[in-house]
Amino acid sequence: MNLMSHILQRRLELPPPLTRDLVVQKDLPVPMPDGVVLLADRWAPRNAEEGLPTALLRSPYGRSGMFGAAMARPLAERGFQVLIQSVRGGFGSGGTLDPMRQEREDGLTTLDWVVEQPWFGDSMVLVGVSYLGFVQWAVADQLPPQVKAMIPQVTESALSLEFLRKDGMSLELPFEWGVMTAVQERPWAMLRSRSQAKKTARALKMLPLNQADVAAIGHSSKYIQDILAFDANHEYWADANHSHRVADVRVPVSSIGGWYDIFLPGQLRDFQTLQDEGRTARLTVGPWTHAQFTNIGVLEAVDFGLAYAKGEVPADRAPVRLHVMGEDTWRDFDSWPPPGYAPKKFHLQADGGLSGGTVPGAPSEEAEPDRYRYDPSDPTPAAGGISINHGGRVDNTALESRPDVLTYTTDELDEDLEIIGEVSAEIWFESSLANADVFVRLCDVGPDGRSHNICDGLTSLSTADELSAVTVRLWPTAYVFKQGHRIRIQVSSGAFPRFARNPGTGESRATATTLRSADQAVYHGLNHPSAVILPVRI
Predict the structure, then answer these.
(1) Whether residue 219 sits in one domain with residue 190
(2) 140 shares a domain with 108
(3) Would you tell me how many other CB atoms lie within 10 Å of the CB of residue 215?
(4) Within 10 A of 146 (CB to CB), how many other CB atoms are there?
(5) End-to-end CA distance of the chain
(6) What's the number of domains the chain is made of?
């Protein structure tokens, strides 16, 4: 009995496998044009018929151990032969890892190599989460005819664009990822993961930030230095942006995302591009964080990918399937964003009110602005949301008790209110400093008074000392506020360490060594109608 197979089946709630008897060919050499050799492992049923469809995964995280088993075994037991390749610069593959910027040429060469192998049949499916999904987009417009489908999960075609935005730099995810890839091949890395996480958390608080990699890893990291030096619009990241390839994809694509995943906005953009071009595409979004371990990727590979690999059509399903949080149900739609939802403004009011309930009201009379002081030496914490290790839906009670967090709350709802789509806010804001951030979070307050986060976003300003209406793009969502609940908006100036703290000096976040506190003001009323804009069901 294969214990790992049974554990994975139970943990992922998978249907029984076709077989548990697998063989693994290790360290298959895949030569690149520049002479570098990448290594791959092939998993296949021991007594399989020749020419099974191939599931290709290209990974920076290794091919053996728990990772290899969790990714490859469920697919190899259910109709695929699986090839896991280590990308350049890790786990035996030659060259140096230069994240995201080297995957197109290596990926195209790998595809050509696979179809020439004697064990290859006549079809292939590209599968994988996060970085393993990004590498699919890197080659998506130039796939050989043997590739029949793509299944990118919690990923997008331009990973750097979201977390390196100049107007809202995400710090935690790229820094933690840079540390993880730097230490993952060290002896006993898994056993030391908890102590490493503590070391990384301490390093994130360092000044200047461009020395934090040495504190966390023991030496400088080129990748971490790059993310601190170049924002998303810098030409340095041009090779990591494959969004222009999406419209030219010709194979069916099943995208899987999470409402609390950092790459969701880009993933929805990619799906909309496919949708607008009339491509065969479907989208599934669940209540997941980036690293949440679910069965949906395996199920889609088998139900969607394997069907196309065999020249069949998968079972009929609506193009868009969304988990609607708040009522904990799955719903099907024809498109994203779905029709039947209209943007409605809920206005911030004096004394912490938020206009309307099921029907939002007009701005209140002009009132004195609400004020708070932001101290970057004691930054407002993130408390759930978009985070790999500490994200998702959490109780925000402690966060909302801080003096640097403002809250605005509706009365109890007299009926359910459903929102699905893009969420944003317009906040009339002024700071004592030119450089400041505006963070807005949407929450659901239950009858017990506890507040749980739904989605949020941050915008960085360089003219914050001038009163202006600041647009903040929150994450998309699908949520039902139940009768008797209340809608709440938080306004603050940070969510550390998800976002890099604003030093307030105008210095680069990479080199800043001085932190300046700021006095912030949020205006509301007829002349300054601050509001959150929710996509409300019509």
Answers:
(1) yes
(2) yes
(3) 15
(4) 17
(5) 55
(6) 3
E-state strands within 222-310: 253-260, 281-289
What angle (nearest 5°) sits at the alpha carbon of residue 213, between those of residues 266 and 293?
Answer: 45
Q: What is the pLDDT of residue 371?
A: 98
Order across the sheet with 54-59: list the strands.
Answer: 22-31, 37-45, 81-86, 54-59, 124-129, 147-153, 253-260, 281-289, 320-324, 329-333
Output the pLDDT for position 32: 98
Residue with tokens 């491509």: 279
Q: CB neighbours (10 Å) of residue 496?
A: 19
Per-residue model confidence (pLDDT) at position 471: 98
Can you give 366-433 as a three-state secondary structure string?
A: CCCCEEEEECCCCCCECCCECCCCCCECCECHHHHCCCCCEEEECCCCCCCEEEEEEEEEEEEEEECC
In order of 59, 120, 136, 267, 303, the CA distances from 44 in angstroms are 18, 11, 22, 31, 19
pLDDT, position 339: 96
Distances (CA, A) of 378 to 174, 278, 501: 22, 49, 10
126 and 165 both lie in a single domain? yes
Name 324's bridge partners. Answer: 329
69 and 100 share a domain? yes
Q: Which of 411, 21, 14, 456 is nearest to 264 (CA)?
A: 456
How many angstroms separate the CA atoms of 353 and 371, rounded? Answer: 15
- 193 and 262 housed in the same domain: no
Q: What residues contact 238, with CB distance under 8 A and at least 6 apart?
A: none
User: Which residues neighbour 448 within 8 Å (Cβ) at sequence distance 6 or greater?
Assistant: none
Residue 312 belongs to a domain with what CATH number? 3.40.50.1820
Domain co-membership, 284 together with 413: no
Residue 346: strand, helix, or coil: strand
pLDDT at 357: 62
**Other Cβ atoms within 10 Å of 404 Cβ, number:** 17
Provide Rg for the chain, Cα atoms.
Answer: 24
Quote the tokens at residue 484: 């008797």
- The Cβ-side half-sphere exposure at 415, using a 13 Å CA radius, reads 4
Residue 174 is which amino acid? P
Q: Say what the pTM is.
A: 0.95
Do 455 and 442 contact (CB within 8 A), yes or no? Answer: yes
Q: How far apart are CA 122 and CA 144, in angstroms?
A: 11
Give the pLDDT score at 516.
98
Locate tokens 């399903």: which residue? 317
Q: In whole angstroms, what separates CA 371 from the centre of its chain?
A: 32
Listed as ranges, residues in the chain with pLDDT below 50 are none
pLDDT of residue 360: 67
pLDDT given at position 359: 59
